[in-house]
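Write out the 3D structure for:
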Amino acid sequence: MQEETTVWVLKETFNFSQFIISLDTRSALVSDAFLKTFGSIVDMWMSLIISLIGVFGNIITLVVFYRLGFRDTVNITMGAITAWDLVRVLCGSVHRLYGPVSLVSEAVGVSWKNVTLINIVYMHIVAGNVSYVIGGYVALERCLCVSFPFKVKSIITPRLTMAVCLTISISVFASQFPIFFVFEYTWVYSQLYGQDVAIYQYTHFYSVHGQKFMESYRYFSFLYPLLSLSFMVVSTVIISYHLQKASDFRNKVSAATKHQDGTRSELSTRDRQVVKMLLTVIALYMIVLVPRVAQFIAIICEAEFFVLRFYNNLFWVISNSVSFLDILNSTCNLFIFYSMSSRFRYCARSMARHFLCCTASPKSSKTTRDTT
């Protein structure tokens, strides 16, 4: 017996001033039961735990970068990526609180999920696109620095890097901001829960501007990851080539010139370490971007592969998987920088020792007063 999936479908009146949600039962590739189980395990509990870890880790990372200062272009770009990653994991954790809330009241949990879905989840997506584009810029910038070290380093200043990161953030966010006006929530009585629950539906803005905007939104959502992935792949290949070329050159240096070029070699070692750290960040982005680009190709090729469409359940299974990879990637910043940057590691340890000393001092002072 073939399972049938319930899909929410929007009905619009002639004056577009009212919207009526009805049920259209169609055969689908993913059943409601599988979507519920998959969403509960992967999208709810696993993503919630990782998101909370990411919030803690990205806050620490931003504090460390603040202590290090933003006089270096690497700190600026990595700080910008960390800030947007913090937005992503914050949105991820707030949305997925519907899991713990459902343990108290399943109806309230459903309402929490649907209400945050139309704003918090899309904020997560838009912040991800900003982060991707900045990541693509980092790859391009590092590629130019490795290819033309003396020319580019004098041009790409910290002030210019800050301006580029701000421009990317504002431009990408503004181009997709209208998505927050496409959906709205309404309350309907649920016989299953015996009380009103919130569901999401299209807005009046969608009836007037929705078709044109959604088309541009889809292409922008496809273009940003695709361009970022392309820049990352090409830049990584070029950077790897120059690193290999530099390694071969160092191997050919005679023993007599080692002492003479000692300072130059030491500086190149630091530069290579920075490049390796950035390549690690870029590689993680590429791992996340490949399935996301594939998803957007499917959205463009199949109109029914979207929210409130025929393949609604399949769309959410894939979206949950991609979102989980996004959250996992957004949580890795602290571990990457701590393990691969000696300056970051030293500053983080100094802050930890200072924090422990400050928390221990009041206790020791109280013990001394009690003893006397």
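The first helix runs from residue 32 to 68.
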